[in-house]
DNA sequence: CGGGATCCTCAGGGATACTG
DNA sequence: CAGTATCCCTGAGGATCCCG
């Protein structure tokens, strides 16, 4: 066998991980950090619409899973930098592809939606 | 410019689309349909833990966005098949990579979590 | 078989205020 | 600056029943 895990099984621990990364905010954070490391407020500013609570929560979860690293500098006031870990880097391609897919295909999506609404309504 | 859309902007229509595909259940459905077309109850059976309500909702949303197609056969009782559209097919690689990433890296994730819990307490 | 309609809950996440 | 702590609320989603 390749490995003992099965994402289709609801009791598999991979499900919990998928639940964390298959999330709008997590993907945007990972995508942003895939470009370059960033500080807390920079992330908050650039990822429009995210609340500091959700940002904080998500960063902590991603750090716990080993996808991102947190480095604090003893300046005054404190400076904190978030970056992808090597493990997190393995995900960048998939993350970027998913996050930016909508941008590249929005016109086709609009047409599909219009056609669907025509048919159904 | 490449295109007029920006996923980092909260008012961009791509955000709504991302919200739909950056979802645990949507990714599992897309991944499953990436292997082969499937019927409603087959999806419900194979994607363990999904409720028929969420399955139904998600399928409808994905169909509206043009990612999957629904074909009903006038048998008794009715037979319905879901499959990826060409548009949906463009996403399969990214979806598969994300969905199965946890399976391939679960050991590293476990270690990261253990180390984190040790550090934090 | 492939769903639609209801009811209900509970936890995800927004808003606000405070701190090292 | 980079968060933590509370309060509060709504809407995602589970459970159940029903139907063409």
Walkthrough of the structure:
Two copies of one chain form a homodimer. Chain A is 61% helix and 12% strand. With 121 residues, the first copy, chain A, is mostly helical. Chain A has a single domain (14-120), classed as Orthogonal Bundle (Arc Repressor Mutant, subunit A), CATH 1.10.10.10. In chain A, a hairpin with a 5-residue loop joins strand 2 and strand 3 (79-84). The model of chain A has no long low-confidence stretch (mean pLDDT 95). Chains A and B meet through helix 1, helix 2 and helix 6 of A and helix 1, helix 2 and helix 6 of B. The structure holds a DNA duplex (20 and 20 nucleotides).
- In terms of structural class, how would the helical and strand content of chain A be classed? mainly alpha
Model regions low in confidence, pLDDT < 50 over at least 5 residues of chain A: none
Number of domains of chain A: 1
Q: Rg of chain A to the nearest angstrom? A: 18 Å
Q: How can the largest sheet of chain A be summarized?
A: 3 strands, antiparallel
Number of strands of chain A: 3
Dominant shape of chain A? globular
Largest sheet: spatial strand order of chain A: 1-3-2
